[in-house]
Amino acid sequence: MLSNKVEEALNAQVNAEMWSAYFYLSMSCHFASEGLAGVANWYNVQSQEEQAHALKLIKYLVSRNSRVNLSSIADVPTKWNSIKDALNATLAHEQRVTGMINNLYAVAEEEKDYATREMLNGFISEQVEEEDTVRGLIDKINLIGEDGTGIYQFDKELAARVYTTPAFCK
Ligand SMILES: [Fe+2]
Ligand SMILES: [Fe+2]
Q: If you measure from the C-alpha of residue 149 to the centroid of ligand 1, how many angstroms do you get, rounded to a whole number?
């Protein structure tokens, strides 16, 4: 059984991961309606990954004989001015999530909950990867600028992303 503090913090993170999933799904819908099917696909896969993160935490809570409290998911933005704008919002969001995961890790340490700390290692590495990936996409879109052919190629590249359950969530 987890301490109340850890249980609460993990439940808050479930909600944050579901918000992330909703946020990226909203971006996916936005870009689909803008005719950028590849970018929409990339964000759809991103949304699925966030759901997998939430499910991993849920599975962990259950395995520790603790309560899962699914609370309401706050509204998400529905419109972005450009791909660059959405990617910048994505990076800022992932940086925020990194902070949340670090806080969660600190709570686990304070509570001397080493099993939770161990479980969070996957999330720690995942955040490094997430920030790096998005930074790479921002670099590309900065190079492309307003070039239509470049945007066409970028969209095509992002169309190739396929969802697979992240290894640490299996
Ligand atoms: Fe996540
Ligand atoms: Fe993420």
A: 32
